[in-house]
Amino acid sequence: MIEIRNLTKIYKLNRKQMRESRTKNPLKTAVDDLTLTARKGEIYGLLGPNGAGKTTTLRCIATIIKPTGGEIYVNGKEVRSQPEAVRTEIGFLTSEIKLDEQFDVDYMFRFFGRLHHVPADVLKQRREELFEYFGIRDFAHKQIKELSTGMKQKAAIAVSLVHDPDIVIFDEPTNGLDIITARSVTDYLRKLRDEGKLVLVSTHIMSEAEKLCDRIGIIIDGRKVAEGTVEQLYAQTGTGDLEDAFFELYRMNRREE
Amino acid sequence: MSGIRQIYGKEIARIFRDKRMVFSVFFLPVVIMVVIMSIMNNLIAGMEDDIERHTPVVCISNEPESFGEFLKAADLQYEIKNISGEKEKRQAEADILNGAADLLIEFPETFQADIEGYADGDAIPQVKTYYNPSEDYSSAAYAEISEGTLEAYRQALLQERIGNLEQVTVFTVNTDNEDMIIQDEQKAGGKAIGMMLPYFITILLFAGAMGLGVDMIAGEKERGTMASLLVSPVKRSSIVLGKVFSLMTVSGLSSLIYIIVMVVCMPMMMESMTGTDGTGLDISLSAKQILMLGALLVVIAFLYSTIIALVSVFARTMKEASTYIMPVYMVVLVVGLLTMFASGKTAGYSYYIPLYNTALVLKGILAQEVTAAQYLIAFAETVLLGGALTGLIVKAFESEKVMSS
User: Residue B119, Cβ neighbours under 10 Å: how many?
Assistant: First the structure.
């Protein structure tokens, strides 16, 4: 279970960043008092436009960055006091995280398996299963730099799941993937959900959120403005389509600048 | 511990799996060094041969008859140009300046008569020689003729005048004394090596780790592969130590290869540069010396690796890291140079200056002059400094500003 209580993340901008975002305020609130709970056995989607704070939230959960305020519990472990324990529970993937290009997929898989203390026999079994599912076996011994974007993404997904985590966090899971690979990824996320795992994804693609997520939290300007199943969101906004629902919420909650 | 081992293993595998990397880190520099050395060697030998083969062009003004006879009798081959008058002398000087002639010998006009009719109280005739030290041929001709041939000619004339030379020799110095040099051969060898080795070691240890260290940290950040380590359950400190230790290994290995090649090639190099047979550099280290050297080299490699890692961690890209590391490299170069040319007594406080003290102690070990206190101060200070820097790197790894910029 992931429990986020009043999460706030404020970045200090340097002069260049201030100039770029045309502001004189050196503090930028990326996430503003966000509270949400995602449970085992569901796919929870953070839906919002670019810059809404989705990635920042996920990075706070993965202990890559530290919250400015509030708390995050991952299976009961707090991100600031037990970062290593939190990282044992999760599999985290974004397109920014890449695998060392000089190694082959197999080496990377085994390397991260050892980092996660996966016993050798379990590692072998995981390798069989994940390589089979994502069709990696054919290029398992190729250097990662020789792989295509789709192959790299598949390899990265397999590696991030090497330790069979209870919680899987994917930032924009289908970003940059072709339609077939994207489908196999979303299918796998459903499979994980069906196995009782918690899957937390961020996306700005309405159709993906609509089809994939059991519950959706809509984030605008760092704040959660609505949460619920797709039907609940329709009812809340009086619409029959996620895109319309989103625009309705966006219109109501967009901060005046 | 397991985390450190895994990271260390990965970094080492990254280098040793890549044949090109192994070649460029360990072998290319050595190959380049050997090639440069042998080219230098050949060029110097070639130059010496060429000077030896060259027949000196000697302009002589007022050449006395007896000098020509002396040259013929001694079978000395010079290209003699006899000149007379101010104008020809100026021409000869111009020739020496542009390399067409090598030496000008100016005898007094009445040299032969002055010598033959010498009586007590007469002025002693003076022979003047002119040469150009910037020209190799001219320098060689000056050394050979002005200091050698003319002296022999003087002796010959003296013998003619006095008959038995032994009457005026009174005594000789070291004409037949092969054992005149009393010194500890090993200590002398150590001194010669001790002058150069610390310089090379400090530079090589640093240079060996520099490129890789930049790639290992700033490069990983830039390529986005660092983030995959940061979301794994390994402690930040394990990542740092794994990387620093692998860097130490590589810098240690590459400098070891250099040193072996250098010790093998140095006698060869010294031979061609100084004309000695290079045996003055034979150095045999005692077990204690080797142990002291080895332990010190390990901690120096540790300190350098942490310095490189610290600089790299604050850089956003490899390019930036390479720019930051250059001034540090310059400092290391200068410190090495300082010890190479430091002579006289070293002030006590020098052994407290980090970096500099390790170079001093390296030099001291090889010359068998270092005290236990000096060694321990340098050793402990290096370890502590390296440890402190490691702490800083771990702090930097924990900072999201540094790691996700």
Answer: 5
Amino acid at A96: E
Query: Is residue B180, in this structure, part of any structural domain at all?
Result: no
Q: Which residues are CB-neighbours of B209 under 8 A, at least 6 positions away?
A: B247, B248, B250, B251, B301, B304, B305, B308
Give the whole-number percent of chain B exceeding pLDDT 90. 24
> Which one of A94, A107, A112 has the shortest CB-CB distance to B232?
A112
Polymer length in residues for chain B: 405
Asked if B8 and B72 sit in the same domain, the reply is no
Is residue B174 situated within a structural domain?
no
Is residue B193 located within the same domain as residue B90?
Answer: no
pLDDT surpasses 80 at B341: no
State the complex-level ipTM.
0.87
Exposed (0-12), middle (13-18) or buried (19+): which is B314, by Cβ within 10 Å? Answer: middle
Q: Which of residues 115-134 of A touch B (CB under 8 A)?
A: 115-117
β-pair type (B103-106, B79-83): unpaired
Q: Is the Cβ of A107 closer than 8 Å to some Cβ of chain B?
A: yes
Q: Render A73-107 in DSSP notation, one character per residue.
A: EETTEETTT-HHHHHHHEEEE-TT----TTSBHHH
Q: Does residue B105 sit in helix, strand or coil?
A: strand
* pLDDT tens track for B281-301: 455 667 788 888 888 888 998
Q: Which two tokens stand for residue A162?
A: 């090497």
* Phi, psi for A251 (deg, rounded to 5): -65, -40
Total number of domains in chain A:
1
Q: How many CA atoms lie within 13 A of A43 on its CB side?
A: 25
Task: Check if A168 contacts B (Cβ < 8 Å).
Answer: no
In chain B, what are the helix, strand and coil shares in percent, each to the nearest 5? 75, 5, 20
pLDDT single digits (tens) B200-223: 777 878 887 888 889 899 999 888
pLDDT tens per residue across all 257 residues of chain A: 999 999 999 988 888 888 887 888 888 889 999 999 999 999 999 999 888 899 999 999 999 899 999 999 999 999 999 999 999 999 998 877 889 888 999 999 999 999 999 999 999 999 999 999 999 999 999 999 999 888 888 899 899 999 999 999 999 888 878 888 888 889 999 999 999 999 999 998 888 888 999 999 999 999 999 999 999 999 988 888 888 898 888 888 876 54
- Whether B216 and B353 share a structural domain: yes
Question: Do residues B72 and B116 share a domain?
Answer: yes
Strands A69-74 and A77-78: antiparallel
Are B257 and B311 in a shared domain? yes
Based on the fold, state whether residues B313 and B194 are members of the same structural domain. yes
pLDDT at A1: 92
Residue numbers of the domain that contains B113: 52-169
Domain of A234, CATH number, reads 3.40.50.300
B110 with B77, same domain? Answer: yes
How far is residue A110's CA from residue A90's CA, in Å, rounded to a whole number? 17
User: B226, B231, B394: best mutation site toward chain A, by most A Cβ within 10 Å?
Assistant: B231
Contact across the interface for B233 and A66, Cβ inside 8 Å: no
B175 part of a folded domain: no
**Contact A87/B at CB under 8 A:** yes
User: Which residue segment(s) compose the domain that A139 sits in?
Assistant: 2-253
- A88 interfaces chain B, CB cutoff of 8 Å: yes
Q: Is A114 in contact with B234 (Cβ distance < 8 A)? A: no
Would the CB atoms of B234 and A90 count as touching at under 8 Å?
A: no
Q: Residues 195 to 234 of A: which have CB under 8 A from any B CB?
A: none
The residue that leads in pLDDT, B338 or B344, is: B338
